[in-house]
Design brief:
The structure holds three protein chains of three kinds.
Chain A lengths: L20 E10 L2 E11 L4 E6 L5 H9 L6 E6 L2 E2 L10 E4 L11 H11 L4 H14 L15 H13 L5 E5 L7 H18 L2 E6 L2 H7 L2 E6 L2 E6 L1 H6 L4 H6 L4 E10 L4 E5 L4 E5 L10 E6 L5 E3 L9 E11 L3 E8 L4 E7 L14 E5 L6 E3 L2
Chain B lengths: L1 H30 L15 H7 L2 H34 L6 H13 L2 H15 L11 H26 L2 H9 L4 H30 L2 H6 L7 H10 L4 H46 L4
Helix pairs in contact in B: 1-11, 2-11, 3-6, 3-8, 3-10, 4-6, 6-8, 7-8
Chain C lengths: L10 H16 L1 H12 L4 H28 L15 E4 L3 E4 L4 H8 L1 H34 L2 H16 L2 H12 L4 H8 L13 H26 L2 H9 L4 H12 L1 H16 L3 H5 L8 H10 L4 H34 L1
Antiparallel strand pairs in C: 1-2
Helix pairs in contact in C: 3-15, 4-15, 5-9, 5-12, 6-9, 7-9, 9-12, 10-11, 12-15, 14-15
The chains are: A alpha+beta, B mainly alpha, C mainly alpha.
Chain lengths: 378, 286, 336
Amino acid sequence: MSAHPDERDAPWLDPKAQPYVRIENVTKKFGEFVAVNDVSLNIYRGEIFCLLGGSGSGKTTLLRMLAGFEQPTSGRIFIDGVPMEGVPPYERPVNMMFQSYALFPHMTVEQNVAFGLKQEGLPRAEIEERVAEMLSIVKLNGLEKRKPHQLSGGQRQRVALARSLVKRPKLLLLDEPLGALDKKLREHTQFELVNIQERLGVTFIVVTHDQEEAMTLATRIGLMDQGRIVQVGTPYEIYEFPNSRFVAEFIGNVNMFEGRLVEDEPDHVTIDSHDLGGTLYVGHGVSAAPDALVWAAIRPEKMVLSREEPPGQHNKASGIITEIAYMGDISIYIVELDSGKRVRVTQPNTHRHADDRFSWDERVWVSWSDSAAVVVTE
Amino acid sequence: MNQRRSIFLLSALVFGFAFLYVPILSMIVFSFNESKLVTVWGGFSVKWYRALLSNERMLEAAWLSIRIAAVTATIAVVLGTMAAFALSRFGRFRLRALFAGMVTAPLVMPEVITGLSLLLLFVAFAPLPLFPDARGFSTITIAHTTLTMAYVTVVVQSRLSMLDESLEEAALDLGARPAKVFLVITLPLIAPALISGWLLAFTLSLDDLVIASFTAGPTTNTLPMMIFSTVRRGLTPEINALATIMVGIVTVFVVTAGVLMARQERKRELEMRAAWQAAAAAGPRQ
Amino acid sequence: MANPSYVSLGQRLISALEAVLAVIVSSYPYRASAGLLRRAGVTGRTLVIAIPTIWLLLFFLVPFLIVLKISFAETRWLGSPPYTPLFEWVEGQYLQIKLSFGNYLFLLRDSLYVQAFLSSLKVAFISTIFCLLIGYPMAYAIARASPSWRNTLLMLVILPFWTSFLLRVYAWIGLLSNQGVINQVLMSLGITREPIVMLQTDFAMYVGIVYSYLPFMILPLYANLEKHDPSLLEAAVDLGCRPFRAFLSITLPLSRPGIIAGSMLVFIPAVGEFVIPRLLGGTSSLMIGRVLWDEYFANRNWPVASAVAIALLLLLVVPIVIFQRMQARETFGAAR
């Protein structure tokens, strides 16, 4: 697997690198309910690690265990090599930004940000200096004397960020940091968050349910489902090389073809798929028993539509266009294959005047390259 | 159809409030009556107020009741806040069901039972050290505290359940110890509930006749006990004057608090709206 | 009253409080005692649970057990305490336990007590119905009033609750007596020539109870009705339901928790009520609260008074349990 060009450096690939946060076989039960199930993770200094998952996937519980609000039922957590058992939240080298921001309503912006420093018993002058510095980093100068209810949503988010960063934690936990912002503000803030993270050199662990947010922010994503980590990888790896149907379907759109392995070579496999009504040729090896049930996942943008039958034996099927959605930059086509399977194909709209656009009820061929499909076995 | 309904609702309100307020108003009017006959108007006078203010025994009883109520309310707020905090912040602990049951049971217990049972306790335990051996101020205060802490618990608990728990977690996360979090975050935020709990406990204690009668010693007389024995002997305009004073104080208190709170609320809302509008005008940069 | 997540009663007060607390926390005595407790293994959590628990055990549970104990003792007319001991060391060797059910049998045999219990239940039940009949329309009207009026109306309901209960009962004496306001009005209007006797009757007692407990009915009902989504009624009307039918089939069933809570808050204390029947009621319907009072104060019969208390409690166990359950569900629901 080649590294994606976007990756600046990748400590997780370096066997000698020490993880900053080490989570070892952590399980958390609430009564009978298993919220987090045997999770192990290594997170490195300077990362923005996103815990991505639906509601009830256990991502927030895992974050709260890192902060010290919950104790693991079993397993251990190390931060900077120190075991965290029995260490209360107020003694951990970790700060958290809450989903609701949790700004103290009876304190001004300044007092909110200074709160953590006051607990350390720093001299007043130093507190003032650091608060002012932090407020200018998050661009809140001039709002020092305001109370939280006198701020807008975006401003509150910045106060929360400043308050959690002012203690210069090595690790910042962010619970849905952009969840309460509207769409426009969210995009803007995403980039700002990354800038601040790089500037201060803090490690971020971000919990989010929004895959787009995870894709833009993260150095790596840990995808969670029902208390388990199902895949860890860079956004590129997670999107292009999902290790299961769940991961492939959770992130982005995908066409899934069920079939049986008929040919299993180190450099390629062929799959006989009744969904497709033909055979798939995939240009990578698969570790699965011969004749095993497998799935080939193909992203909509990796498929091509054509009126003429493409050459070759594999990786094509004909069908009829049943729906078209024009999105501006791309168009989405739903094609009903002769096998009855409906597939989703996206095509870029590269020309403004496309007289030869496909239309409803048109018979077309859908095809893709040998490297387009990913085979998953579960 | 709709009009008929609103006429019905309006008359229900008018009748209901008349029912609630006519007795109080008539009591006030007759407190200014010249005549000794409480119910026959004989001209305006404030002589019953003068009589009341020179009634040593009544004033003494009032002062005792106020002292009992103030001490009761203070202890009840402390204990009730602890109980409310345990119930709403500690999750499950051993014997929680018993604890919750004991805290709220005095709310629904008939007063005669609470009074009798506490009296029998004081009698049984009087010889023990640390227990009051004569009944009076301290026994009434203990009895009233037991009753009123239940009310305080309910008031504070409902406030705590509305409070976002992540505020307390955020303070812990920023390095404050639990006791400090309680003092600098939780306590200021539930202060309004503590104030209303204190006032509620004060009022209930000041008003109680039955429990005080059971737990008072033979020579102790609280204000309600004085009123009760006076009223049983017949109507006297002095009681009207007393009632008027008490209604007046309470009204001023409640109305002022209501107006202040409404004004604060309105100001807050305006400021909130202003902040959001300013941000919307400035675009995503702000 | 409106309940936003944060209502300030004066910022200055809170900041002052905070400053005082900060001084306390950093003071030497606070730190020293906190350290001492921590070393002894006593956490703040334990203390917060233990202190109210000890108080309640001592002043709620133990007194109750004493009442239970005395209710099984026999009356001893001359002596202090005026009842026989339950446990006794015989010759310093045997623990003799003497349980006497005599007081309970006495309650059952003497028709006075049975009558008193029955009439207490009857009075409480009828009063609850009247409170509901008067309180429901009021609560409904307040819940439907415009927001600016709502707080004022609600304050008017609560205001009498803050003023002395005893004095409000007293006010009715002035209204209902033979020379009272009502009789004077009736006579001056020529409706009656002789004053109608109202004081010291069941009528006066019912008026007093309904009057005193009405706010307890209105408040839970209002809290419930206020939460109703008006679009439910609009949907029902839109689907062809007449307004009154819509009320019967939508609002009334949805307000059941409020009705039950309000009824319990009126019924339970009304059963044991002492002051109102004593001041306004006649001698015909003797209520149990007064029987208990007289048994203790007039007859000095502690065991029978205790037995009456236990019997009264047994009578109220069912409504109290219903109420506690609802209370628990309400707080549980609110915490979510």
